[in-house]
Each structure stands twice: as structure tokens, then as C-alpha cells.
Specification:
Layout: H1 4-14, H2 20-41, H3 43-46, E1 51-55, E2 61-63, H4 64-80, E3 83-88, E4 95-96, E5 102-110, E6 121-129, E7 141-147, E8 151-157, E9 160-167, E10 172-177, E11 188-190, H5 202-213, E12 217-218, H6 224-234, E13 237-240, H7 253-266, E14 270-272, E15 292-295, H8 297-307
Parallel strand pairs: 3-5, 11-12, 11-13
Antiparallel strand pairs: 1-2, 3-4, 5-6, 6-7, 7-8, 8-9, 9-10, 13-15, 14-15
Helix pairs in contact: 2-4, 5-8
Bound molecules: 2,6-di-O-phosphono-beta-D-fructofuranose.
2,6-di-O-phosphono-beta-D-fructofuranose binds next to helix 6.
């Protein structure tokens, strides 16, 4: 039974990137996630389900739990004294706290349209040095916490991905899988197929048709953490493409696409916009969107063949 903090200090011995400040930041993000997990589990009892009756910077409806999760993470990270810049899906501008240190981009509660129906949602985070607006390849660490039947943390550093499960009795995230690798090929594709006729790439339609011919099955929760979590463990492909309405797709680069791509690639998979590796995209804007194609190596390479002729 290895708790997260013990794991981080052990990992720091072999990986010099993991310094005490980083350990503190990751520990505090996961402490915030434990509080959020508690609120999510009791949301109906605490009367915190439903809309906060406002829209965020991206024009999306803000849920009460979105707001609460955002406040919990912001306050927790500010208190560490080690975060120099914070960027949240729910906040228009970056919060600059100092010149040097770690910057954290996060989606406090991803999949918020699923909150009211008790479907898995999660917190996603990306940690960079100094500036948040850097290519994903430069991430120091990235992870997500999924609030599902159990609360799990998936944490990636360059070259390693580890999986933890929250033990409700001890309140610790316990290591359940070190050096996690995803399957090289799967049997599931995950995409909002209701948009089939709106996708801008004809090659994508042909690729999805080819998967059906190969007897793939479709699973789509509509909550990125849940869909990526399944893709990591079972293999296959997750796609949120560009469509006529969303020219750059829907998912945000800095706190959705980048951290998930970093996890997937360090677990042996691939992540691309269809034109370039997601981790190579140079961010132009804080809330920039990108098309996302990620998953097992075989399916992503196959998808690229269809997209690029
Ligand atoms: P949500 O709007 O519920 O917050 O980031 C946005 C996101 O969820 C992702 O979690 C999810 O993958 C995607 O949107 C689902 O979008 P569609 O409903 O358009 O399929």
C-alpha cells in the first residue's frame, strides 16, 4: 500500500524533475480533488446540483459544482505559495502570483453537463514551469482525477504514468498501477457520432465507417475524463474533431487536450490534431481549442492515414 506522497518522494530519487515544490503542488491538487470528490458524492444532499445561472468565458452554462470546484482548487493552490500562474477553464484571464515557480492550468470539473445525472466527471490539470502558454511537450506533469464509482488519480511525468485509487477509509490516494501502459490496439471508438454529417473531414467519416466494418463498438459518455479513462484502460480511440460549428473542435488545448495527450503518449499511445501532434501545438490563446484524436497507437495511426489521404 503506497500512498501518493510516499510514491512522489520515491519517484523524486530517480527523477530530478520532481522537486519538493512540485511534490507540494501535486499533493495539494489531490487534496483539493478529495474535497471535490466529497462534494460530488453528496451534491444532491447539499443542494449544489444544477446551474449557477451564468455562462463562463466560453459561453457555456456554469454549474454550481463547476464554481465550487474552481474556488476549491484556486484557493488551495494559492495557499501553497509555490504556484506562479493559475489558469482555469472557468476564469477568463490567468492569475499571476509571482515571476517564478510552477504554473498550473486546470479544468476544475470536466464533463459538467453530466453532473446532474450522476455520471463520471473529473478534474484535469497540467503543470508547467513559469508560463502556462507553452507547448504540451514541455509539461512537467499532468493528471486527472475521475469521480466515478471510485475516485481515481492518473498522474504522468515524462516517461511514466501511474494510477491511484482514493481509499475512503484512510483518505489517501493509494498506488494501484505503476508504469502503466495502454493497449496498442483496442476494439472501441469514442466520438459524438450525432455530428457525423457536420465533421469537416471526409476522411474521418471514412475512418469511422471502416471501424464499424471491423466490428468495433462505440462508447461515448460525453465526459472527456470518462471517455479518455476508458480509452487508456481498454484501448481504442477517442476523437473530438472539428465540425462546421466548432472549426477547431470543442476541447481546450491547455487544460484538456494537452494534459490528456501527455498522459496518453507517456502510456505508449498517440495524440494528434489530425495535422500535428497535440503536444507540439504552440498556444496562442489561453482558452484555445484544438481538434483531438487520441488513443492506442494503431487506431490513431490508422486515422491519420484516412485524414491525410
Ligand atoms: P462538458 O461540455 O459537459 O463540460 O469539455 C467539454 C466536454 O464536456 C467534454 O468533457 C466532453 O468530452 C465534451 O464536452 C462533450 O461534448 P459534446 O456534448 O458536444 O459531445
Amino acid at each position: 500500500m503506497i500512498p501518493l506522497t510516499t510514491y512522489l518522494f520515491q519517484k523524486a530519487v530517480e527523477n530530478p524533475v520532481i522537486d519538493d515544490d512540485l511534490v507540494l503542488i501535486i499533493s495539494e491538487i489531490t487534496s483539493a480533488a478529495k474535497i471535490i470528490s466529497g462534494k460530488v458524492r453528496k451534491a444532491a444532499l447539499l443542494d449544489i446540483l444544477g446551474s449557477a445561472k451564468k455562462t463562463n468565458v466560453q459561453g457555456e452554462e456554469v454549474q454550481k459544482l463547476d464554481e465550487l470546484a474552481n474556488e476549491i482548487i484556486l484557493e488551495t493552490l494559492k495557499c501553497t505559495g509555490k504556484a506562479c500562474m493559475l489558469a482555469s477553464e472557468e476564469v477568463e484571464d490567468c492569475l499571476v502570483l509571482s515571476d517564478t515557480g510552477y504554473s498550473i492550468a486546470f479544468d476544475p470539473l470536466d464533463g459538467s453537463s453530466n453532473i446532474d445525472v450522476n455520471v463520471s466527471i473529473g478534474t484535469i490539470f497540467s503543470i508547467q514551469k513559469e508560463d502556462v502558454k507553452k507547448p504540451g511537450r514541455e509539461q512537467i506533469a499532468a493528471g486527472y482525477v475521475i469521480y466515478g464509482p471510485s475516485t481515481m488519480l492518473v498522474l504522468a511525468f515524462k516517461g511514466s504514468v501511474s494510477v491511484f485509487c482514493l481509499d475512503p477509509e484512510s483518505g489517501n490516494f493509494i498506488l494501484v498501477k505503476d508504469n502503466f501502459k495502454m493497449p496498442e490496439k483496442g476494439k472501441i471508438y469514442s466520438i459524438n457520432e450525432a455530428n457525423y454529417h457536420k465533421w469537416t473531414e471526409d476522411g474521418l467519416r471514412k475512418f469511422v465507417d471502416s471501424l464499424k466494418e471491423q466490428k468495433y463498438t462505440l462508447r461515448y459518455v460525453g465526459s472527456m475524463v470518462a471517455d479518455v479513462h476508458r480509452t487508456l484502460f481498454k484501448g481504442g480511440i477517442f476523437i473530438y474533431p472539428a465540425d462546421v460549428k466548432n472549426k477547431n473542435g470543442k476541447l481546450r488545448l491547455l487544460y484538456e487536450a494537452n494534459p490528456m495527450s501527455f498522459i496518453v503518449e507517456n502510456a505508449g499511445g498517440l495524440a494528434t490534431t489530425g495535422k500535428e501532434p497535440i503536444l507540439g501545438v504552440v498556444p496562442q490563446e489561453l482558452h484555445q481549442r484544438v481538434p483531438v484524436i487520441l488513443g492506442s497507437r494503431w487506431e490513431v495511426e490508422e486515422c491519420l492515414k484516412y485524414l491525410n489521404g
